Amino acid sequence: MFNRNRFLRRVAAIASISLVAGCGLLSGGDSGSKGPIVVGTTSAPSTLDPAGAWDGSWELFRNIYQTLLAYPNGATTPQPDAAQSCSFTDATSRTFRCKLRAGMKFADGDPLTADAVKRSIDRIRTINAPGGPAGLLGSLDRVQVLGDREVIFHLNQPDATFPFVLATPAMSIVDPDDYPANALRKDGQVFGSGPYKLQSYDEDKQAVLVRNDHYEGFAQRQNDAVTIRYFQDSASMVKALRDKQIDVTYRGLAADDIITLQQHGTSDLQLVDGAGTDISYLVFNPKDPWAKQPAVRKAVAQVVDRGAIAHKVYKDTVDPLYSMVPKGLTGHTTSFFDDFGDPSVSKAHKILADAGITRPVPLTFWYTTDRYGSETALMFRELKQELEASGLFTITLKSRPWKSYVVGYQKGEYPVFGRGWFPDFPDADNFIAPFVGDRNALGTPYPSKEITSVLLPRSRSQSDRAKVVQDLEAAQQIMVNDARLLPLWQGRQYVAASDDISGGERALDPSTIMMMWELHRKTSW
After folding, report:
1. What secondary structure does DSSP assign to 124-173, as a single string?
2. pLDDT reading at 398 higher than 90
3. What is the CATH number of the domain that holds 173?
4. Which domain holds residue 91?
5. Does position 49 have pLDDT exceeding 80, yes or no?
6. Max Cα separation, the chain?
7. Do residues 240 and 32 lie in contact, with contact meaning Cβ atoms separated by under 8 Å?
8. Which residues form the Solute-binding protein family domain (predicted)?
């Protein structure tokens, strides 16, 4: 459908803890033995309603809900899932038409029709939940239904990335009989049409998934049941793996645990290691009297030592990042390094002095305690040490658990705060558009008319993404000039598993979301 570079290839390397484990990764599956596969993660959902989440909740959504388009194993462009076919029907990328598979049903047997698709998309915009995914639908004008199986999306501007938006778990199809049109569902129940149905859910503890016999889509399930357990930290998660209480770990492995698995692993564990596109960054709040000043933001950018953070805190399990667009994506630049170079206290001092700031700048940095891994607190201590050692800043650190943390930054309570980003889809647009404009994923308005009104619309008119590099680079340079967002590091993918589990190297889609149906137990060695 689109002409794209295959920049997100499957996992590049497998660090085998034992030769026996490594040789068994591609062996056949046995979906019925030893009960459900148990997956551990530190990223618990913030909500079970797709209209309310633009975050790690998508990991669960991908497996229990269905979207019109998604990513079969090995694909880097969206392919039909709930849909039988989808395509633009005009030369300007403004009319996108999908035809559903015949006889689609939700897990409870209710029919899944074109009207259900329309109402699922419409309610996202109607509810417009704080921190929700309505911002992804900025180019959508209206949704039209033709009969029971055809849906037409009319866009208000050309948008070659729209199929990628439809493939995000945010666009999950829900049963309109069970989901209110103007409010989020909060009873802990799920009615989707994905490969699994949610049998039970214990908030922040576990989700029990079982096979959905009504599922029709591309997923070829290698198991009949998966239980996802949610942990508060990496150490307890890895202990559960070693004690064989879980079979697989993903999201939240701490650097020390990764290094231990790599260097001092046991013969009954394996580690899959490959390139990733998740990023960590700082957000400056324009409502704060200090953070709103460009000189303050640029001085912070001039002092922060990304290399030290990657090495000292993350033990080189992440890479320093000098743009909001990560390495590996078409259009990536190193603009922050090009403009600021290596960390320099003298340059930072001059930036502040030229702005008339002659005393140490007081800033409060906020971070979440239970979302981005065990090193988050250590990283913020390192940031505090670096900035205060310069003599130019006094830093106060504060933290909250994720659910209350989100409420705080949406209310504009934090002068400077940390966020992470896992891509909605594998395109540089998705590392720019979500962060700019009055209504963005951060809850912190970032007006930039040149980006939102010129560069992004022009780039979205091109289905060949290699032709929009100049616009994407220009957008990144504007973000550097503003220094409203400060990229810190780019992560890698790590999946640790028991040696009798296969499929870990196939289970991550281009947005690094785990497709649980690819996991299975080995039957041969």
Report:
1. HHHH--TTSGGGGGTTEEEEEEETTTEEEEEESS--TTHHHHHTSGGG--
2. yes
3. 3.90.76.10
4. 65-184
5. yes
6. 70
7. no
8. 77-440
Helical (H) or strand (E) element with 335:
helix 335-340
**Domain limit, last residue, from 123, 158, 184:** 184
Q: What DSSP string runs through 57-105? A: THHHHHHHS--SEE--TT-SS-EESSEEEEEE-STTS-EEEEEEPTT-B
366 lies in the same domain as 478: yes
Query: pLDDT grade, residue 31 (50/70/90)?
Result: very low
Q: Are residues 164 and 280 in the same domain?
A: no
In whole angstroms, give the CA distance from residue 408 to residue 400: 9
Residue 242 lies in a domain: no
In a domain, 505, yes or no: no
DSSP state of 326: P
Q: Do strands 485-498 and 319-320 pair parallel, antiparallel, or not at all (unpaired)?
A: antiparallel
Q: Look at residues 78, 94, 97 and name the one whose alpha carbon lies nearest to residue 139.
A: 94
Q: Are residues 282 and 172 in the same domain?
A: no
- Give the total number of structural domains in the chain: 2
For the chain, give the percent of residues with pLDDT over 90. Answer: 70
Among residues 151, 184, 217, the one where a domain terminates is 184
Determine contact, residues 15/493, Cβ cutoff 8 Å.
Answer: no
The string of pLDDT tens digits covering residues 129-165 is 987 899 899 899 999 999 999 999 999 999 999 999 9
**pLDDT score recorded for residue 424:** 84
- pLDDT score, position 83: 98
Span 236-241, average pLDDT:
94
Mean pLDDT of 3-15: 30
Please give the single-letter amino acid code of residue 499.
Answer: D
Q: Is residue 342 part of a domain?
A: yes
Cα–Cα distance measured from residue 172 to residue 106, given in angstroms and rounded to the nearest whole number: 12
Are 293 and 442 in the same domain? yes
CA 373 distance to own-chain centroid: 14
**Lowest model confidence (mean pLDDT) among 37-46, 336-345, 438-447:** 438-447
| SS3 at position 491 | strand
Q: Is residue 236 part of a domain?
A: no
Q: Is there a single domain that holds both residue 372 and residue 471? A: yes
- The sign of the dihedral angle between the CA atoms of 221, 223, 227, 233 is negative
User: pTM for the complete prediction?
Assistant: 0.80
131: closest CA among 214, 54, 17?
54
CA–chain centroid gap for 155, Å, is 25
